[in-house]
Specification:
With 262 residues, the chain is of the alpha+beta class. 38% of the residues lie in helices and 15% in strands.
Length: 262
């Protein structure tokens, strides 16, 4: 089922100050960013905070920039793929990337979780510290007869995240928000590396792609409250500012890949 974006999602009536989930989400991030500045003069800190707030407030606008991507020249043969397949991508906050891929035809399920580290450290609070090897990731279960791995990559690079900024997506900073394609076999690695080269050679983006292509050693589902977060929290301020612009881009750029509304 498609996520319905509220018609007034850009409304100034959205009150971030009264949204506990938004404040809780950012409390630890502000602490990590401002903590090292405690010894600076108050006026300097205030100016930096104002700048950071402006970045957060405009992140949706930055994400809304339209980039037209070519189809992958190399893809996995649909005829040779049997049964449901999985793909694991990391592209910043998993709330947003999960919401994007949930909308696509042939996608059966999307799970938010962690990849890149070990099972012991696959917990949100630990990953958010930036001290683990994990990246916030999503596991996509899809039908390759309806949507190919290459098409998923195209949506990943065009809409789901920013592939040219190292260790940052919108307001989120740290290696846990890095861009990664976690491949499960040689075919996925071949297609991912070929597509990144294709995009870099065509200079689709104004800077080289920084996305890592890394072997998948494990995917660990995140806590239950993270699953389908956008669908379950449509008025959350983080969702309004960061997820809805991605969903609008998806609808404009890939209408042929969207599930039919019920």
């Amino acid at each position: 089922m498609l996520i319905n974006i509220p018609r007034d999602w850009r409304s100034p009536e959205t009150d971030k100050a009264s949204d506990p989930s938004y404040l809780n989400e950012y409390k630890s991030r502000w602490r990590r960013l401002i903590g090292p500045l405690k010894n600076l003069r108050f006026s300097i800190v205030t100016g930096l905070v104002a700048t950071l707030v402006a970045v957060v407030s405009t992140s949706g606008l930055m994400q809304a920039a339209v980039v037209s991507l070519p189809d992958p020249a190399v893809d996995i043969d649909r005829a040779g793929a049997k049964g449901a397949q999985t793909a694991v991508f990391a592209g910043g906050c998993f709330w947003c990337t999960e919401a994007v891929f949930e909308q696509l035809i042939g996608v059966h399920k999307v799970i938010s979780g962690f990849s890149g580290g070990d099972a012991a450290s696959a917990h949100y609070e630990m990953v958010s510290s930036g001290k683990t090897n994990h990246a916030e990731s999503i596991q996509i279960t899809f039908d390759p007869s309806k949507i190919s791995y290459g098409q998923l990559l195209k949506v990943f690079f065009a809409v789901a995240h920013d592939p040219i900024t190292l260790n940052r997506q919108g307001p989120d900073w740290g290696k846990q928000y890095r861009s990664v394609v976690f491949y499960k076999d040689a075919e996925q690695k071949r297609v991912a590396e070929a597509y990144i080269k294709q995009l870099d050679d065509a200079k689709v983006f104004h800077k080289p792609i920084v996305t890592e292509v890394t072997a998948l050693k494990g995917f660990y589902p995140a806590e239950e409250y993270h699953q389908q977060f956008v669908r379950r929290n449509p008025n959350n301020s983080y969702v309004v500012v960061n997820a809805y612009p991605k969903l609008e881009k998806l609808k404009k750029q890939f209408p042929e890949l969207l599930k039919k509304s019920k």
